[in-house]
Every structure is written in structure tokens, then in C-alpha cells.
């Protein structure tokens, strides 16, 4: 490029120099060649020659620029032709592999959904829980009355249905895909930044009203439908994680896993196969089990948990009523989050037991989450305690997934 500019400048200088020399020669020499000629004519002739030289140089420059433009257009056309040729070629093996993997993942999810829907016509007895393990008497049990589940939208009253009507509404909602997903944030404290969302299911009746968990859970469990509801929730949770990946949101999801889900061997085999093929989704999903279910879990339950842990899943324990917690057992089963009710954490009678739990959790990598924070006074007390995570209506109520950013 520098050589081209230098050459262009030299040519321009030469042309202008020759034009100036010719113009001066005519202006001075014309009166001498033709005596009696007005000297002004000589200078006029010189000016015309100078102008002609400038026109010649301008024409040369325009012609050179036109050639450069045509050359660039030619190169651009070649690039376009090359790109078109690449698009016309068959997909590269790596790209084809990625596309095939994504397609296979979607097919597996659809297969899981078909499996769940197919069960709706089956008449199955409720899942029999495994016999509980014997345990030593607990040192400290939290026996305070359990408050109503404030995570359920309080503004929607359960419809006046008898049990048969509730069961029929649940079956109809499953068949018509009216199991709604609600999300409640789990935030870091004191920053209150959203770090996780807990996923809840809500059954929507045909008239649009919500049937709350405290109304349908026991009925659905007796009818053997809880595994289907929980498994459907799990598949929807996977789809939510895929959506957050597309939006490049770094957030995780807590999903409740009941004993009914763990004992559903056919579903768990399909689910494990799906997650082995989609390892990037694993760190963003935390399974949540109650203290009672973990303690009552037999060989089947603990075997499924071990398989999930081997592929990278981590767990959370909630609904804790007994503060005699075996921290080593939590670590052994990859339980990395412990949820304690705000009422338990702030009960003066349990202050020493709570402090003992926090001391034993220190340095283990198990995070403590204060849940059911419903008032400003509770939030202030939790903030003063230094707990790292919080959940509850005061920090964010459950909202439909479609309204979640």
C-alpha cells in the first residue's frame, strides 16, 4: 500500500511538473517566437496548458480508482461465491454430531413425556414406601406446629370439591397439560441476588382455578399419581434449564424429588440416560428431599441417589424437624444444601442446637438456607445471624415460570 501511494505521488508530481514547465515555456517563449503578440496571450496559453495537465492527471486518478473498485468488487464476489459453496456442502461431521445430539436429547424428553402421559390410563396402587431405618432417639426435635405452606399462592382459595372431584380434576389436568410450573427465588444474603429458583407444581382446573398442594397431594398419592406429577415437574425443570442456557443466565434450580419418584425405576432409568448425555445440565439442577424421606430411604432409594451423585448431581435436605443431624451422612450422600425453617432458626429454645448445627457445618461445603422468611422482622433477624441464603415470601413469592425473567 505504501509503495502504491508513493508511485501515485511520483506520477502526480511528474505530470504537474511537466505541465508547469510547458506552461512557463509557452508564457515566456510565445512573444519571442511571434513578435508583436500580446504577452498576456502567452500567459493565457500557459494557463491552458497547466489546466490541461490537471485534467489529464484527474482523469488518470479516476481511472485508477475505478480499476481498484472493480478489483475489490471482484474479490467480494469471489468471497460470496465461496460462502455459497460452503453452505451448499453437506454439514461437517462435528456440526452434524452436535445437531444429532441435540435432536436425540429432545427425542428423549418427548419419550419421557409420552411415558408419563401413558400412565394416566393405568390403575396403579400407591407406591409402597420402604420400611424406615431404625435410628437412635434424637437429642433435639423441633415439635412446633407446622405453619401452612405459604409458598402456595394465598390469594387463590381451593375450590369446594370432594375427593372424587379433586382426583378427577388432577387426572384431567395431567391429560390436558395443565400442571403449571411456579418458581420461587432463593437469594444470597445480604445482597438478595437471585442464585436459584425452587420449582413447584400447581394443578389448574378446567375453569382456570388453582388446586393447591395441601388439597390434592394426599389424594393424588393414594391414587398412585404422585410419581407422574413429580416426574412431569422434573422434565419441565430440564426444559427450564435449557431455556436459561440459551439466554446465558447463570442460575440453578431446586426440584423436589419424592420417594415415589425415586422408586419409579422405569422413569429413573430413562432420566439417568438423558442426563448422562447432557452433562452440562447436571450442575444447574439440585434435587431436594425431606429429612424424613432421607432417613426412611432403603437400599433402592439410596442406590438411586448414589447413581445420581456419580454423574454429578447434588442434593438439598428440607422439612427438617430434628436438629440431631449427621453431617458426615450428608456429605456421604452429596447433600450440599440444608434448609431450615425460619421459625426453627429463630426459636430461642433451640438457639444452642441451631448454633451447634452451624458450627458442625462450618467448613464442610454445605450451605445453610433459611426458608419461609415471611416478615421484615424475620428477615432482619436472619440477616443479623449471618446466614448466606434465604427464601420466603418476604424475598420473593412463587410466580408462574412464564413470568420469570
Specify Rg, calculated over alpha carbons. 39 Å
Q: Biggest sheet: strands side by side, in what order?
A: 1-2-4-5-6-7-8-9
Number of strands: 10
Q: What ranges have pLDDT less than 50 throughout 5 or more consecutive residues?
A: 1-5, 90-97, 120-159
Let me know the largest β-sheet.
Answer: 8 strands, mixed, barrel
Question: What is the CATH class designation of the largest domain?
Answer: Alpha Beta
| Anisotropy-based shape | elongated
Strand content: 5-15%
Region (Disordered): 122-157
GO molecular function: cyclic-guanylate-specific phosphodiesterase activity
Pfam families: EAL (PF00563)
Protein name: EAL domain-containing protein
Annotate the secondary structure layout.
Layout: H1 2-33, H2 39-88, H3 93-118, H4 163-175, E1 179-188, E2 193-204, E3 210-211, H5 213-222, H6 226-246, E4 252-256, H7 259-262, H8 265-276, E5 285-290, H9 291-296, H10 299-310, E6 314-318, H11 327-332, E7 335-341, H12 342-345, H13 351-361, E8 367-371, H14 376-385, E9 389-390, E10 399-400
Parallel strand pairs: 2-4, 4-5, 5-6, 6-7, 7-8, 8-9
Antiparallel strand pairs: 1-2, 1-9, 1-10, 2-3
Helix pairs in contact: 1-2, 3-6, 3-8, 4-5
Amino acid at each position: 500500500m505504501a509503495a502504491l501511494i508513493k508511485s501515485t505521488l511520483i506520477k502526480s508530481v511528474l505530470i504537474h511538473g511537466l505541465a508547469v514547465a510547458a506552461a512557463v515555456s509557452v508564457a515566456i517563449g510565445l512573444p519571442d517566437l511571434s513578435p508583436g503578440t500580446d504577452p498576456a496571450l502567452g500567459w493565457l496559453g500557459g494557463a491552458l496548458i497547466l489546466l490541461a495537465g490537471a485534467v489529464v492527471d484527474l482523469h488518470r486518478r479516476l481511472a485508477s480508482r475505478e480499476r481498484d473498485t472493480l478489483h475489490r468488487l471482484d474479490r467480494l464476489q469471489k468471497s460470496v461465491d465461496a460462502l455459497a459453496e460452503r453452505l451448499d456442502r453437506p454439514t461437517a461431521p462435528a456440526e452434524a454430531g452436535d445437531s444429532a445430539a441435540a435432536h436425540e436429547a429432545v427425542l428423549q424428553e418427548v419419550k419421557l413425556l409420552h411415558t408419563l402421559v401413558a400412565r394416566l390410563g393405568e390403575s396403579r396402587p400407591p407406591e409402597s414406601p420402604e420400611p424406615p431405618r431404625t435410628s437412635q432417639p434424637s437429642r433435639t426435635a423441633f415439635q412446633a406446629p407446622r405453619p401452612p405452606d405459604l409458598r402456595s399462592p394465598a390469594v387463590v382459595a381451593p375450590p369446594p370439591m370432594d375427593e372424587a372431584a379433586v382426583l378427577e380434576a388432577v387426572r384431567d389436568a395431567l391429560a390436558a397439560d395443565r400442571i403449571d410450573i411456579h418458581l420461587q427465588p432463593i437469594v444470597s444474603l445480604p445482597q438478595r441476588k437471585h442464585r436459584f429458583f425452587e420449582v413447584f407444581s400447581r394443578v389448574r382446573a378446567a375453569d382456570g382455578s388453582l388446586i393447591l398442594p395441601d388439597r390434592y397431594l394426599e389424594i393424588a398419592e393414594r391414587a398412585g399419581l404422585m410419581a407422574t406429577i413429580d416426574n412431569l415437574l422434573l422434565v419441565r425443570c430440564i426444559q427450564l434449564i435449557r431455556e436459561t442456557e440459551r439466554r446465558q443466565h447463570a442460575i440453578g434450580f431446586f426440584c423436589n424429588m419424592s420417594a415415589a419418584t425415586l422408586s419409579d425405576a422405569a422413569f429413573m432409568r430413562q432420566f439417568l440416560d438423558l442426563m448422562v448425555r447432557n452433562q452440562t445440565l447436571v450442575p444447574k439442577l439440585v434435587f431436594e428431599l425431606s429429612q424424613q424421606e432421607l432417613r426412611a430411604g432403603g437400599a433402592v432409594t439410596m442406590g438411586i441417589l448414589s447413581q445420581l451423585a456419580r454423574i454429578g448431581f447434588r442434593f438439598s435436605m428440607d422439612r427438617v424437624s430434628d436438629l440431631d443431624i449427621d453431617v458426615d451422612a450428608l456429605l456421604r450422600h452429596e447433600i450440599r444444601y440444608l434448609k431450615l425453617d425460619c421459625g426453627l432458626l429463630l426459636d430461642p429454645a433451640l438457639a444452642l442446637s441451631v448454633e451447634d448445627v452451624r458450627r458442625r457445618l462450618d467448613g464442610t461445603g454445605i450451605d445453610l438456607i433459611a426458608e419461609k422468611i415471611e416478615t421484615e422482622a424475620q428477615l432482619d433477624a436472619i440477616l443479623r445471624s449471618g446466614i448466606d441464603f434465604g427464601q420466603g415470601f418476604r424475598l420473593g413469592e412463587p410466580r408462574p415460570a412464564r413470568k420469570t425473567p
